[in-house]
Amino acid sequence: MSAPRDDEFGFAPDYDSPIPYMQRTRDYYAAIGYTTPYRWAHYTSAPFQPLKKPLARSRVTIITTAAPYDPAKGDQGPGAAYNGGAKFYQVYDGDTSKEHDLRISHIGYDRKHTSATDNGTWFPLPQLLKASAAGRIGEVAPRFFGAPTNRSHRVTLDTDAPEILARCLADKVDVAVLVPNCPVCHQTTALVARHLEANGIPTVVMGCAKDIIEHAAVPRFLFSDFPLGNSAGKPHDVASQAQTLELALLLLETASGPQTTMQSPLRWSEDASWKLDYNNVAQLSPEELARRRAEFDKQKEIARGNRAA
């Protein structure tokens, strides 16, 4: 008997599922010559704090992996190549009453399918301020916080997460919304969310790398099946950004326990073939892999020099 055709039952193609970023990353780095596989953070349970007060009376902050624009650090504009020189290595904060130019050139977002032209897709401060004005949340905390994207679990767990917690406590934060961009960013925010939650602050992660977040076991996760770099909604689509934040707030209110994932109903496009591209070695020629290895080594040297400085 012949197998039924996909279109007979309305089946989606098999590739139209969440991208397996952990496996893609392992395969990619092996293909460019790094044979020791990266150890992704893995937990089978997560801490969980219910809301201590209604969101309409809560002080909410944002934790981001985006970096403040610095014109001295090379091209950080829309579509810029990966720029290791723009990375930051210590927790920073910013005044939420002011506008901020945060960019993502220093991390591995999906440069083929999104162009980083709208920071509303990775920094939902404008939407959070609107939520405050509408009474959906009590207020926006006086500061937001930048979390360094460290491959080192120890640095994130022992240094950065406690520092972010200390600043949240100083600002009397009730709730934290965490917004990652690249694969390692998702791991970073997962570890920070776990630390905050273990110390009394409810959290929600808004992200696009489902496997990484769920592997690390976070309290609450809003999954948007979008290219990396769009955790807070579609670019130049304010309605999608507002809906994405509202879903995150709803998840904060409705999750009954840890490791609760909600999937956004929004789709990036009707054609899901974009999911086949990101760091997919099956799509890359030997020449392209060699070029990427050379570029990766170059960026490692830049980052090493910046870290030492």
Give an account of the 3D structure.
This protein is an alpha/beta fold. The protein folds into two domains: 55-263, no CATH class; 279-308. Helix content is 34%, strand content 12%. The protein is built from eight helices and ten strands. The strands form two sheets. Strands 1, 3, 5, 6, 7, 8, 9 and 10 form an eight-stranded mixed sheet that branches. Strands 2-4 form a two-stranded antiparallel sheet. Strand 7, helix 5 (183-198) and strand 8 form a beta-alpha-beta unit. Helix 4 packs across helix 5. The N and C termini lie far apart (67 Å). The mean pLDDT is 94. This is Glycine reductase. It comes from Bradyrhizobium nitroreducens.
Summarize this entry quickly.
With 309 residues, this protein is of the alpha/beta class. The protein is 34% helix and 12% strand.
Secondary-structure topology with pairs:
Layout: H1 6-9, H2 21-31, E1 59-64, E2 67-68, E3 92-95, E4 102-103, H3 125-133, E5 139-140, E6 143-146, H4 153-170, E7 175-179, H5 183-198, E8 203-207, H6 210-216, E9 220-223, H7 238-254, E10 260-263, H8 286-308
Parallel strand pairs: 1-5, 1-6, 1-7, 7-8, 8-9, 9-10
Antiparallel strand pairs: 2-4, 3-6
Number of domains: 2
Poorly predicted regions are none
Give the radius of gyration.
Answer: 19 Å
What is the structural class?
A: alpha/beta
Average pLDDT works out at 94
Order of helices and strands: HHEEEEHEEHEHEHEHEH
> Alpha-carbon distance between the termini?
67 Å
**Count of helical stretches:** 8
- Give the biggest sheet: 8 strands, mixed
Q: How much helix, percentage-wise, in residues?
A: 25-40%
Count of DSSP strands: 10
Large-scale geometry: globular
Percent of sequence in beta strands: 5-15%
